[in-house]
Amino acid sequence: MSNADMTLRIADLTKTFDQPGGGRLTVLDVPQFEIAAGEQVALIGESGGGKTTLLHLIAGLLIPDSGSIRVAGTELTRLSEQGRDRFRASTIGYVFQTFNLLPAFTAIENVRLGMTFGHGNTDSGRAKDLLDRVGLADRAHYRPSQLSVGQQQRVAIARSLAGKPRLLLCDEPTANVDPVSAENVLDLIRTSCSEENIAMLMVTHSMHVAERFDRVDKLEQINRAFVTSQ
Ligand SMILES: Nc1ncnc2c1ncn2[C@@H]1O[C@H](COP(=O)(O)OP(=O)(O)OP(=O)(O)O)[C@@H](O)[C@H]1O
């Protein structure tokens, strides 16, 4: 496929960390990893293998030792830290296992924050639509502590979509919610990405989640470095 058809294109990526006992640990050595526009990919792998590290690199929260990371045609490794922050806000959505909502703000304010970082001004209509889409129109003015855990995760999903990202990164988004909410969360993310043609990479430990995806990649298959904490 051509560059234009690829939302994510990684080449010859390496990432090492200092080890507490001295020396450096190579966590990632990925010759090639690509996600096409609108494609949905589940990433599975052993604990400590480097899945979260890979998501952080793609989000520009970490920088690699070497290699190339292109997201929607932009080479992240050429951007400054500020440039990466700006690019992330406008182009990448991130759903965390632990939601990361701001406790002092209501549901709708949390969703709007996903836009302020991206475009400077907020679109109240879209924030409302997103809360409606995740089934929380009647909870718009509740703070996170006044919401159930599953509802908090749905607010976090609405926030991640607020800036109209091209790529959504999800790190175990169903790990902390009950099985019924997990199904809802998964459906919601997948449907929202399909509707807005957002490419998506979801890290999961759950085979139940992974088997819902057409494409399931094992980190061990794309990563020549092999690290495990088990
Ligand atoms: N800042 C850091 N400094 C040193 N080592 C680190 C750092 N961050 C991660 N590592 C190491 O990198 C490896 C990969 O960690 P990472 O969190 O990416 O794994 P993971 O596949 O997401 O694991 P899990 O499935 O358990 O969440 C681990 O061995 C970890 O100890």
UniProtKB/TrEMBL annotation:
Which GO terms label this protein's molecular function in UniProt? ATP binding
Supply the alphabetized keyword list: ATP-binding, Nucleotide-binding, Transport
What range(s) does the ABC transporter domain occupy? 8-229
Which InterPro entries does the UniProt entry name for this protein? AAA+_ATPase (IPR003593), ABC_transporter-like_ATP-bd (IPR003439), ABC_transporter-like_CS (IPR017871), ABC_transpr_LolD-like (IPR015854), MacB-like_ATP-bd (IPR017911), P-loop_NTPase (IPR027417)
What is the protein's given name?
ABC transporter ATP-binding protein Rv0986
